[in-house]
Design brief:
Structural class: alpha/beta
Shape: globular
Oligomer: single chain
Strand content: 5-15%
Number of domains: 1
Largest sheet: 8 strands, parallel
CATH superfamily: Aldolase class I
Low-confidence stretches: none
Strand order of the largest sheet: 7-6-5-4-3-2-1-8
Number of strands: 8
Order of helices and strands: HHHHEHEHEHEHHEHEHEHEH
CATH topology: TIM Barrel
């Protein structure tokens, strides 16, 4: 937090409420119209090829199912490192995202196959509901870090936020960030599908950034609607304006509902036109997805070969 903001916001309920309640409201019609307009941008062949590789490098390849097995996680790690084993020019993905009990399996296997540069992200703090004591949330996070997670995707207490308990949400994020320290980046999941309004999305974005988030993330992927373009636009505007206030760049991670190359490219256009090209890097923009990578690979093959390959050319995850 900048010195000027630090003077305004001391972490108390009153200072947080004064700041958040004075944020300008979101023009709903304007946000939806701009997101829709940017979604019509046409990307030509050469630019499309670069956009596809960039999108691949930004994917947090995710499996968050109760039926996950060590074998499935290892297979996903192999795909993360070599998305297309027949074409070694394809970049590796941004991260692997799994539940806590799969973190060590993912980290050990990635290290064994030369994937040391691919971080393992763990969903934490009683994901996806966030309904647990702070003691449990801290233990959950510590367990993930000790198992090798270098990124923590925590969920906020949406009930507390919607009840106006901004100080409680702020304190939880700050405590988790303190536990992460320099060991792990903290992505704060807002679960925008439960926040009801764009104004709440903007307030939650600022609250997370003020408390120390390294990234703000739309969704758990378990609640609809998830990463809609207008919601992502509002969050991108928030990180852009936060950078103007503080000089600190915060990342954004849309997750949920981004399944096709067209969806991914729309996200990249939103980033470029809202925050600028500085955010077009896996260090500041990620896409949480499971099915997206296959479509990106299929489209990449189409650009390379001039025809669509069979779906059998990519693995079913």
């Amino acid at each position: 937090m900048s010195e000027s903001l630090g003077k305004l916001i001391d972490g108390s309920e009153s200072s947080l409420r004064a700041f958040l309640d004075n944020l300008p409201g979101v023009d709903k019609v304007g946000a939806e119209g701009r997101a829709a307009m940017l979604g019509t941008r046409s990307i030509k062949t050469t630019s499309k090829a670069r956009a596809i590789d960039l999108a691949i490098s930004m994917v947090d390849l995710t499996t968050l199912e109760g039926a996950d097995t060590p074998g499935k996680v290892r297979s996903l790690c192999a795909k993360a490192l070599r998305p297309d084993p027949t074409d070694l020019t394809v970049p590796h993905v941004g991260a692997i995202c799994v539940y806590n009990d799969m973190v060590k399996i993912a980290r050990d296997y990635l290290d064994s196959i030369g994937g040391q540069s691919i971080p393992v992200a763990a969903v934490s703090t009683a994901f996806p509901s966030g309904r647990a004591s702070m003691e449990v949330k801290l233990r959950d996070t510590q367990d993930a870090i000790e198992s090798g997670a270098s990124e923590i995707d925590m969920v906020i207490d949406r009930g507390a936020f919607l009840s106006g308990k901004f100080g409680l949400v702020f304190d939880e994020i700050r405590e988790i960030k303190a536990l992460c320290g320099e060991t792990a980046h903290l992505k704060v999941i807002l679960e925008t599908g439960e926040l009801a309004t764009y104004d709440n999305v903007r307030k939650a974005s600022y609250l997370a950034m003020l408390a120390g988030a390294d990234f703000i993330k739309t969704s758990t992927g378990k609640v609809a609607p998830a990463a809609t373009p207008p919601v992502v636009l509002v969050m991108l505007e928030a990180v852009r304006d936060f950078f103007s206030l503080t000089g600190k760049r915060i990342g954004v991670k849309p997750a949920g509902g981004i399944r096709t190359t067209k969806d991914a490219i729309k996200q990249l256009v939103l980033v470029n036109e809202t925050t600028g090209p500085e955010w077009l890097t896996p260090k500041l923009f990620r896409i949480g997805a499971s099915a997206l990578l296959n479509d990106l690979l299929m489209q990449r093959m189409k650009l390379r070969n001039g025809r669509y390959s069979s779906a059998n050319y990519v693995t079913v995850d």
